[in-house]
């Protein structure tokens, strides 16, 4: 492993009340695992705004991209850690074909995987590394479990060695197909332990258990956020999640009508909005800037959690499709397609704890957030908005 900077002041002291007071002026070294991903890169942007923070990112680029961090590369307070590969391995990229559209090319020599031991000196760890979209986490389920279990164990081992505070981004999936609605943190969930989603939801449940065992056994300072569906700019365009799918589908569907060949060719396979049956299942969508704000408040606050971070506005998938149509083009058709196994029928966070303990609640409604995402997707797909005549 590469350790590129000298270690900072003794980290275990940083979080004791007394030393927090004495050392308030010194910089915080913050590790973000999965920092090249969707939420991770927005978190890095926010952390970098504070001049007292030094931010270190590790990522294996399975679903993330260095592009998401390009504005920070070379910044004196930012570090993207890479593994020391031999020269003859430098050109070996891994190519995965994960879905109809998505082919991932992974820049191996530059990647760091949380399933490997990692030696760094840091004060805080935001542990996000883990694919979040079902098509990616189901692609290699054994790897997903390793990431959740071994990856979290390693980050806890690291946190223990250097006395860092560690925050895990857990998920609303720990509630499974919930029988209680909305979901409170006290609810233990209804999870299929042997289903196709279990690598992710059971993986995160074990990760939460590990966090609490390290807390109880070794006195680690832990924070657990249970994140509900989050959306916004920089989501992988073809990652299969519902908001990104609907927006990309609507833009592609409309674009081939008014873009001349050859520019329209990539969009000719454009499909209608694919609402997975029955379409009455619900989700609650949180805009990414609200999410990042909640994560930072949780890390810097006094409560271990688990705390739900999400937007309680609840929508059926049919309602979401209608909202996207209304935004992009009312003529885009919908198609009901087959669903995947174990799809939760309802999901909505009870955020009383986040409000009371963190003073946090989301500010951006779905109708305010969707246009921001449309703008980003149009830019990346190269399809400008049609000017009204
Ligand atoms: P993402 O897939 O965009 O980001 C995950 C990042 O982790 C990627 O950059 C990926 O390359 C990296 N990664 C994956 N496996 C790794 C490994 N073994 N070693 C190192 N890096 C690895 O996902 P996201 O939406 O940004 O989610 C971030 C975190 O939030 C995840 O832990 C996810 O479980 C959690 N979460 C997200 C949502 C959501 O709606 N986006 C909901 C609930 C929980
Ligand atoms: N670990 C790590 N970086 C560190 C310290 C530990 O990656 O700085 C890993 C280590 O490889 C081990 C895991 O974290 O697999 C758990 O470490 P811990 O010290 O808690 O347990 P032990 O090594 O005693 O099993
Ligand atoms: N979904 C859909 N069409 C799509 C992709 C997903 O109707 O093209 C539905 C899916 O069945 C689920 C919901 O949208 O009920 C949310 O799925 P997503 O994969 O975004 O997140 P998760 O299932 O992890 O909440």
From TrEMBL:
Top enzyme class: lyase
Topology in membrane: Single-pass type II membrane protein
Protein's pathway: Nucleotide-sugar biosynthesis; UDP-alpha-D-xylose biosynthesis; UDP-alpha-D-xylose from UDP-alpha-D-glucuronate: step 1/1
Gene Ontology molecular-function annotations: NAD+ binding; UDP-glucuronate decarboxylase activity
EC nos: 4.1.1.35
Compartments where found: Golgi apparatus membrane; Golgi apparatus, Golgi stack membrane
Entry keywords, A to Z: Decarboxylase, Glycoprotein, Golgi apparatus, Lyase, Membrane, NAD, Signal-anchor, Transmembrane, Transmembrane helix
Source superkingdom: Eukaryota
Domain NAD-dependent epimerase/dehydratase stretches: 30-310
Catalytic activity, reaction form: UDP-alpha-D-glucuronate + H(+) = UDP-alpha-D-xylose + CO2
Obligatory cofactor(s): NAD(+)
Gene3D superfamilies per UniProt: NAD(P)-binding Rossmann-like Domain (3.40.50.720)
GO biological process, one term: UDP-D-xylose biosynthetic process
Main location: Golgi
Gene Ontology CC annotation, any one: Golgi cisterna membrane
Keyword flag Transmembrane helix: yes
PANTHER family, alphabetized: UDP-GLUCURONATE DECARBOXYLASE, UDP-GLUCURONIC ACID DECARBOXYLASE-RELATED
Family: Belongs to the NAD(P)-dependent epimerase/dehydratase family. UDP-glucuronic acid decarboxylase subfamily.
Designated name of the protein: UDP-glucuronic acid decarboxylase 1
């Amino acid at each position: 492993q590469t350790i590129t900077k000298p270690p900072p002041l003794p980290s275990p002291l940083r979080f004791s009340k007394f030393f927090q007071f004495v050392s308030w002026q010194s910089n915080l070294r913050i590790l973000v695992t999965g920092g090249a991903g969707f939420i991770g890169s927005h978190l890095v942007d926010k952390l970098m705004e504070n001049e007292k923070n030094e931010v270190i990112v590790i990522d294996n680029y399975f679903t993330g991209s260095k592009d998401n961090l390009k504005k920070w590369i070379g910044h004196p307070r930012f570090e993207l850690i890479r593994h020391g590969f031999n020269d003859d391995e430098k050109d070996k990229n891994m190519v995965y074909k994960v879905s109809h559209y998505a082919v991932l090319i992974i820049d191996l020599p530059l990647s760091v995987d949380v399933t490997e031991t990692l030696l760094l000196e840091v004060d805080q760890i935001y542990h996000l590394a883990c694919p979040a979209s079902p098509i990616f986490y189901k692609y290699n389920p054994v790897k997903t479990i390793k990431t959740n279990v071994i990856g979290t164990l390693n980050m806890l081992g690291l946190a223990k060695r250097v006395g860092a505070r560690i925050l895990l981004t857990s998920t609303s999936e720990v509630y499974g197909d919930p029988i209680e609605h909305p979901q409170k943190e006290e609810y233990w969930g209804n999870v299929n332990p042997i289903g196709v989603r279990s690598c992710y939801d059971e993986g995160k449940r074990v990760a939460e258990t590990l966090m609490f065992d390290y807390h109880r056994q070794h006195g680690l300072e832990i924070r657990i956020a249970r994140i509900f569906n989050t959306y916004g700019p920089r989501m992988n365009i073809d990652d299969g999640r519902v908001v990104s799918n609907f927006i990309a589908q609507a833009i592609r569907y409309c674009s081939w009508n008014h873009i001349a060949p050859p520019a329209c060719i990539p969009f000719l396979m454009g499909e209608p909005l694919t609402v997975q049956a029955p379409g009455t299942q619900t989700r609650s969508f949180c805009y990414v800037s609200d999410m990042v704000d909640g994560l930072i408040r949780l890390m810097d606050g006094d409560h271990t959690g688990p705390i739900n971070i999400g937007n309680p506005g609840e929508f059926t998938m049919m309602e979401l499709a209608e909202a996207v149509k209304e935004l992009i083009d009312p003529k885009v058709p919908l198609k009901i397609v087959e669903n995947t196994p174990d799809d939760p029928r309802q999901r909505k966070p009870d955020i009383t704890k986040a409000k009371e303990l963190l003073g946090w609640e989301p500010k951006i409604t779905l109708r305010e957030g969707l246009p921001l995402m449309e703008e980003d997707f149009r830019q990346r797909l190269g399809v400008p908005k049609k000017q009204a005549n």
